[in-house]
Amino acid sequence: MRVTIADIARQLNLANSTVSRALKDDPRISTEVREQVKELARQLGYRPNLVARSLVSERTFSIGLVINDIPWSFFGELAQHIQNAAESYQYATLIYSSGNNPHKERIGIESLVARRSDGLIVSAHENMENIHLLEQLSREGCPVILLNNIPAVSLDIVGVDNVNGNRSAMQYLADLGHRRIAYIGPEPVKSFEVERLAGYEQFCRQFQCGEELRMVFTGEASPLLGYKATLSLLENNHTPTAVLAYNDIIALGVIRAVWESGLRVPDDISVVGADGLALCLTAYPPLTTVAVPIREMAVKAVELLMQRIQANESIGRTTPARIQLLPELIIRQSVSVPRS
Amino acid sequence: MRVTIADIARQLNLANSTVSRALKDDPRISTEVREQVKELARQLGYRPNLVARSLVSERTFSIGLVINDIPWSFFGELAQHIQNAAESYQYATLIYSSGNNPHKERIGIESLVARRSDGLIVSAHENMENIHLLEQLSREGCPVILLNNIPAVSLDIVGVDNVNGNRSAMQYLADLGHRRIAYIGPEPVKSFEVERLAGYEQFCRQFQCGEELRMVFTGEASPLLGYKATLSLLENNHTPTAVLAYNDIIALGVIRAVWESGLRVPDDISVVGADGLALCLTAYPPLTTVAVPIREMAVKAVELLMQRIQANESIGRTTPARIQLLPELIIRQSVSVPRS
DNA sequence: ATGAAAGCGCTAACAC
DNA sequence: GTGTTAGCGCTTTCAT
C-alpha cells in the first residue's frame, strides 16, 4: 500500500486534517508540527494523491489540448508552448492528438472531459458535430478555447488572421516585381486553408495577377504533395516566378521540386511558406515565411482559459472573446527579384 | 451542478449501485432497467467522473509519457505512436515534455505520478538523480519503461541498437568506396549520442579510416549546429567524401551547408542521417537515413508497460526486460559513390 | 435482480 | 492550534 495522509496522522497521533494542513503550510499549524509532519512524509515517501484531492476540490489542475497531429511540427511547437504556458499556472497539460480524424477527435474530447480537465484548448477538425459538442460542454461548465476561426460559434476563439498574413506576403512579392505568383495548397476546407487561399485570391483579383496559377491538390498538407503539385505545375509550362505555399511543410516540397527540375531557388523561382516553424532553417535556402506567432497564441489561449476557469464561467453568461493574431513575414533567402 | 449517478438513481427510484451497474451493462441488471437508465443518462447529459472512479478502482487508465521536447519531430512521432498504441488498450496518454531540462523532467515525473498514472514511459534526460527517482517509483509500484540504454539500471528498457545501426551505415558507405567519412554530432553525453558516435568510431578503427573527420560540437542537436559544424569542417580543407550525421535534423543542416559551399549532394559529398523521420523526404535530395523503428518502439514499450500494469508488478520481483531494436538503413538519394 | 452501506484519500466546515 | 465530521462520485461487498 502506498502511504497516505492517514498513515502519517496515525504515526504522529494527529488528525488527518492537521496533516493535510501541515503539508500545505497552513499558518494555523505550529511550526514544529509542520516540520514534524513534513519530515515523516519525506521519510515514508509520501506522495499526494491528486485524484483524491481533485474529487473534493472539483479541480484537477490540468487542461486538455486537442490537436490534429503531433508529428508535423506546427502542432508540436504549439503543444510545447501551451504546456509551458500552462505550467506557469501550475497546470498540467493532457495532449490528445486526433490524427485528423473527427471520430477520434470526439473520443479525445470526451476522454479529456471524463478525466475532468478544468478546461480545453482545441484546434478543431471543424467537423460541426464536434463543434456543437464543444459548445455543449462549454455550456455545461467546461471552458473551451478554440484555435480556429469558425463563424457564429459561442466559444472563445484565439485565431490567426491568415487572410491578411498572406496578403502581406503577396504584397511583398509584388513589390519585388513578381506578377506570376502561384499558390500551392490543399483544397480549402478548414479555416486555415480557406483563409490562406483567400488572402492569395483577394490579392490576385485586386491586382489582376495570375490566378490561373492557383494550384489546389487533394489530400493533407505534406511535403510530398507540395512536391508533386509543383512538378505538375512546372510540366504544364505555367512556370511562375514565385510560389506561395499553404505552409512551410509544403514549401519544403516545393523547393525540392524546383531543384530537381534543374531550376534554382530563389533565382528562378522564389518560394514563401507559412507557419514559421523552426524547420524553415532546415531548407536550402532558408525559407521566407508568413510566421504565425505560435508562442503568443499559446500564451493568449492559456491566459484566456485560466480567466474562464478562475471566474468559473464558460460561455453563456459572457460574450465569447475573439482574439486575432496577425502573422508576421519573416524574410530569409528563398525569395529574390524575378529573373527577367 | 453536473449530473451524477445519484441524480439518475433518484429520478428513477433506484439505488446508486444499480445505476452504476446498468451503465456498465452488468448482466445482473434487467434489460429494461438498463435501457431506462441509459436513456435517462443520455437525456440528462450524464458524463462519468473518471476522477471518482479512479479513486476507488486505483486505476486511472492513463499512462504518462516523459520526453525531452515535442517540436523536433523524433519525439513528436514517438508521442503519436505511443498515444495510438495506448489507445488500443483504452488508455489515455499524458505527455510531458521537459525541454531537455533535468529539473523540469523531475517536476514532470512527480506530476504524472501524483496524478496517478498507471505507468510511465520515459525517454530520460539521463540525469542519474532522476533515474534513481524512477527506480524508486518503480519499486513503489509504478511501472516504468525506459527508452534509453542505461547500464545496470533496474528498469525495463526498450532501446535502440545505435552502435550497430551506425556501423551498418558506415559499411554501406565503405562498400560504395568512401574512405574519408566525417561524423557530425553533439558531444557524446546521452546514450544515443554515445552509441551513435561509437558505431562510427568502431568502424573507423577497424578499417583504419578517417577518424580525424570526427566533428563534435557543443550544444543540442539542431540544423543550425549541423550547418555550422559542416562549414567549419569544409573550411579546414578536411573535405570528406561522405558525412554521417548524428540525426536527420543535423543532416539537413549539413546538406544546406554543402549546397551553400558550392558543392553538390551527393555528387561531391554524400550525407546520411539517423532517426528516419518523415521530414527526410523534405530534403533535396531525399535523405538516406539509419531509421529507428519508432512505431515498433512505441508498440513494444506500451505492450510491456501494459503487461506490468496488468500483472500489477513493477521491477523488484521480476528481472527487468531488455528489448533492443535494430535500426534499418533506408536508402534514398543523398548518397552516391565518391567522386574521385 | 436490486438495495444498503462502507470506503477510496483528501479537504473544509465547524467545533473547542 | 488541533480534532471531528461529513462528503466529493463512484464501486463493491454483502444482504435480501
Describe the 3D structure.
The structure is a homodimer of 340-residue chains. In chain A, the strands form 2 sheets. In chain A, strands 2-1-3-4-5-11 form a 6-stranded parallel beta sheet, sandwiched between helices. A 6-stranded mixed beta sheet of chain A has the order 7-6-8-9-10-12, sandwiched between helices. Chain A is an alpha/beta fold and 340 residues long. In chain A, helix 6 packs parallel to helix 7. In chain A, strand 8 (242-245), helix 11 and strand 9 (270-275) form a beta-alpha-beta unit. Chain A folds into 3 domains: 5-48, lambda repressor-like DNA-binding domains (434 Repressor (Amino-terminal Domain), Orthogonal Bundle); 57-160 and 294-326, Rossmann fold (3-Layer(aba) Sandwich); 162-292, Rossmann fold (3-Layer(aba) Sandwich), CATH 3.40.50.2300. The N and C termini of chain A lie far apart (78 Å). Chain A has helices at residues 5-12, 16-23, 31-44, 50-57, 73-87, 102-114, 128-139, 162-175, 191-207, 223-235, 248-260, 294-311; strands at 62-67, 92-97, 119-122, 144-146, 156-160, 181-186, 214-217, 242-245, 270-275, 288-291, 322-325, 328-330. Chain A is built from 12 helices and 12 strands. Chain A is elongated, with a radius of gyration of 26 Å. The longest helix of chain A is centred in the C-terminal third of the chain and has 18 residues, at 294-311. Helix content of chain A is 45%, strand content 16%. Chain A binds a DNA duplex (16 and 16 nucleotides) through residues 4-6, 14-18, 20-21, 24, 28-30, 33, 48-49, 51-58.
